[in-house]
Specification:
TIM Barrel, 10-stranded mixed β-sheet, two-stranded antiparallel ribbon, 18% strand
Length: 354
């Protein structure tokens, strides 16, 4: 008798729990371009004990943990490197040069993302590959094949720079095309076209990348866009990519992520803070960015700031991470955690300011 009652109630209980896309039910019916996606700059290059807290690291936690915590955009540099033993050319994830940071094979990194997508069927993830040595699209395609991830690849139904609508996250998930890949440079040779590898500059315009002062963040087009006019950028129909990265200049032209200032950089209202930058760009551009790229994505209210842009509260299935810097000699668990609900209430009013 009781078993029958439970079976009778089970469909209604299941129906009462809406699907959450990218950690929230309301985003399922939102088009891809209208969602603000939090990005982890140089995702696999870590500043932690695994590489003796390398000054060239851009994140405190690995790619899988970033995704678990709400990051939905991952960037990486792809380098063509000769294997010292076999002399074969391989694609590796290095930071400027493999002498600084070598995070392994591109195919291995893609495989970790594929496993994450397998285990998280309601999530859409975006990659930006910095094609450091301009390898052919078919060379990148081979890496996707090794990782068995190409079947997730999203292919737009419309050419770039048109008024055609992007699909909703729900549509992308239903069709199984949940991985969007942009490649910043691709050698254009006859026949070398892979439909799911999208040339970044055909689809995206970016703000300045090399900011070295907290007052240097802007909302005007900069990278690979032949204008500084916001009106021209909007007319291009390209996606708005907001870089929020603060660098420190070192000797010999070396620039490093400003890790000592990251609490302020990823904060809401500090000078040069992420929240102020987002609010300013939403006013000046007249729309929120589709992508927001940060270093050390776990620090400060970065993910909450993106929630505010998306008008959502109460993220579903998101891993909570320590919010402070990970420093040598300190246990990760010893740092405080962010009171997500309190912070959302505090900054949610910003939605009324624009």
């Amino acid at each position: 008798m009781y078993f029958f009652i439970i079976l009778t109630l089970l469909p209604s209980l299941t129906a009462s729990t809406p699907r959450a896309c990218n950690n929230h039910p309301s985003l399922c019916n939102t088009t891809y371009d209208a969602v603000t996606h939090l990005g982890a700059h140089n995702s696999p290059y870590l500043h932690d004990a695994s590489n003796h807290f390398s000054a060239f690291g851009n994140q405190f936690f690995n790619t899988t943990t970033q995704l678990d915590a709400g990051v939905r955009l991952l960037t990486v540099q792809v380098h063509l490197v000769e294997n010292s033993r076999t002399k074969a050319k391989v694609l590796r994830l290095c930071h400027t040069t493999c002498l600084f940071i070598d995070a392994g094979l591109l195919s291995d990194w893609l495989y970790t993302i594929r496993i994450w997508l397998d285990n998280n069927p309601n999530e859409v993830v975006t990659l930006v590959l910095v094609n450091y040595h301009w390898v052919l699209s078919h060379d990148l395609q081979a890496e996707y094949a090794k990782a068995d991830i190409a079947h997730y690849g999203f292919v737009p139904s419309h050419p770039p720079n048109t008024n055609a609508s992007w699909p909703t996250l729900g549509d992308m998930i239903d069709k199984g095309h949940r991985l969007v890949t942009f490649v910043n440079e691709v050698r254009r040779e006859e026949g070398d076209r892979v439909p799911y590898l999208l040339r970044e500059w055909d689809y995206i315009w970016e703000t300045a990348y090399d900011v070295s002062t907290p007052t240097g963040f802007t909302c005007t087009p900069d990278r690979e866009f032949n204008t500084t006019s916001i009106a021209d950028a909007l007319a291009s129909k390209k996606l708005f990519f907001m870089n929020h990265l603060l660098y420190e200049h070192q000797a010999f032209g070396i620039i490093l992520p400003a890790v000592d200032a990251i609490e302020e950089t990823n904060s809401w209202y500090a000078q040069g803070g992420l929240g102020k930058h987002l609010e300013r760009c939403r006013r000046e551009v007249g729309r929120k960015p589709t992508f927001v790229l940060v270093d050390y994505a776990s620090v400060g209210p970065a993910v909450v700031a993106v929630d505010v842009m998306n008008g959502v509260r109460g993220a579903v299935g998101r891993l909570e991470l320590p919010v402070g810097r990970v420093v040598e000699g300190e246990s990760v668990g010893s740092r405080g955690r962010l009171g997500m609900g309190a912070l959302v209430l505090a900054v949610g009013a910003s939605l009324l300011m624009v």
